[in-house]
Design goal:
Mean pLDDT of chain A: 85
Largest sheet of chain A: none
Low-confidence stretches of chain B: none
CATH architecture of the largest domain in chain B: Alpha Horseshoe
Mean pLDDT of chain B: 83
Largest sheet of chain B: none
Helix content of chain B: over 70%
Number of strands of chain B: 0
CATH superfamily of the largest domain in chain B: Tetratricopeptide repeat domain
CATH topology of the largest domain in chain B: Serine Threonine Protein Phosphatase 5, Tetratricopeptide repeat
Oligomer: heterodimer
Number of strands of chain A: 0
Structural class of chain B: mainly alpha
Strand content of chain A: under 5%
Low-confidence stretches of chain A: none
Number of helices of chain A: 10
Number of domains of chain A: 2
Chain lengths: 193, 248
């Protein structure tokens, strides 16, 4: 990654991460019209385009806040690919009816393909983790939320009225439980294959 | 996976192991691929929880902000879309109707308020002087000049003809018209006034042309007064009345 040159459009990624309204607005003005056109031309509506765009921007935000997201291609290509893929997947899921897909708009940018793939994998993983977290017992959920919010295990132990060692043990078992749920999901194997 | 392993993962990650314990744990990771896989997922899950919980407030703020921008943007798009759907055919109609109204109004105004001009009424057409006699060549010259709108020449020819035939009212009328065309209003008006006083067949035509002469001289009041003297039973009555209305 390090030898790849950062694209100047990294400013959009950084702007999203900083929740910069001007950057968000600029993304809508510059890059969203193309997505809306594409979705409209492919059996979709403006409402559906709105949801797709919003979901993708949240995904990008999450990815760049969790790990570094370094844009090595134009934002336009990366963003459009993500929206397009998400829309095509949604079409496959929701409609059994025939779908006309306009494949004219394609990017031959490998860098964009790679980055978009990374981001969609991240999004799927995140969705899987979130789903499995909800399956944990209430005690585990509360403990994990407390430990990651407060950060200091001493404080967590104090607030729960238990010893540090016990709190740490509980935390490790809850995380362990979560990893088992994740591992048991068929989606996990798809993502890791 | 053994619960003991998770406790070990956590102890290692929180830095609570001694250097020796950590070293032996790392060695086990290198040899035991199942343990390594399990540890990797544990680390990833921890990192996921850390970020999700830590960034909860920021993420919520981002989503809220995003929603605002998104709503504004898409509302704009949707209203444009609706306008486009209804509008394209509708606005064409609207423009067409507006154009028609403007055009009709324009024509109406033009007819109503455009000052009538002499040329609108001077429809004497071509003349034909088929009188046989000694002065055929002169008659022909007068006729040709008049019909070719060479009014100066026509005036000269009619002047000569009138000298030869003083009583000819037809010549006088044509000479008067030629003089109106030449803006020699003194000559034309004198000729026409004389015709007006007489009793020739050209009496009312002469009055009509006298009125037109006044119109050309922008003497609207005189023009109207003269038009009003044209009696109902004359050929010129109807057009005289119309012109009076327009001048009002």
């Amino acid at each position: 990654m390090s030898e790849k040159k950062l694209h100047e459009d990294q400013k959009y990624i950084d702007g999203l991460l900083k929740n910069n309204s001007f950057i968000i607005q600029a993304i809508y003005d510059k890059f969203v019209p193309k997505v809306v056109n594409y979705i409209r031309q492919n059996s979709g509506s403006a409402d559906e385009a709105q949801d797709i765009v919003q979901d993708i921007l949240i995904t990008i935000y999450n990815q760049c806040s969790h790990k570094k997201l370094q844009l090595t291609c134009p934002f336009d290509a990366y963003f459009f690919l993500l929206c397009k893929r998400k829309w095509l997947n949604q079409l496959k899921k929701i409609s059994k009816k025939e779908v006309t897909i306009n494949e004219d708009v394609l990017y031959k940018n490998d860098e964009a393909q790679e980055l978009a793939f990374e981001t969609s994998t991240f999004a799927e993983k995140e969705a899987l983790f979130t789903e499995m977290f909800q399956k944990l017992g209430t005690a585990c959920k509360e403990l994990l939320q407390a430990t990651f919010k407060i950060k200091s295990m001493d404080e967590v132990a104090n607030s729960l009225g238990v010893t540090y060692a016990y709190a740490r043990k509980k935390k490790s078992l809850c995380i362990g439980k979560l990893t088992e749920l994740i591992k048991a999901s068929p989606k996990f194997n798809q993502l890791n294959s | 996976m053994d619960e003991q392993n998770y406790i070990e993962f956590e102890t290692y990650l929180s830095g609570d192991m001694t250097a020796n314990e950590a070293l032996s744990f790392e060695n086990r990771l290198k040899t035991d691929s199942e343990l390594k896989e399990s540890f990797q997922l544990y680390k990833e899950t921890t990192s996921f929880l850390e970020h999700t919980v830590k960034n909860e407030a920021e993420t919520a703020a981002f989503k809220e902000n995003l929603q605002k921008v998104s709503k504004t943007y898409f509302n704009k798009i949707k209203t444009q879309q609706n306008k486009g759907k209804k509008g394209k055919t509708f606005s064409l109609f609207k423009y067409a109707i507006a154009a028609c109204v403007v055009l009709l109004f324009g024509l109406f105004m033009f007819n109503q308020y455009a000052t009538p001009t002499y040329s609108d009424y001077s429809n004497y057409g071509t003349i034909s002087l088929t009188v046989r006699g000694d002065n055929d060549s002169l008659l022909e010259a007068a006729e040709n000049a008049f019909n070719n709108n060479d009014f100066a020449k026509a005036d000269e020819a009619f002047k000569s003809l009138i000298v030869l035939d003083e009583a000819n009212t037809e010549f006088k009328l044509y000479r008067a018209i030629a003089n109106i065309e030449l803006d020699n209003f003194e000559t034309s008006d004198t000729l026409l006034s004389n015709l007006q006083k007489g009793n020739s067949v050209y009496k009312y035509k002469a009055i009509w042309y006298l009125a037109l002469s006044k119109l050309k001289q922008h003497e609207i009041k005189d023009c109207k007064a003269i038009l009003k003297t044209i009696p109902e039973d004359s050929d010129e009555y109807n057009q005289a009345q119309k012109l009076i209305k327009k001048l009002d």
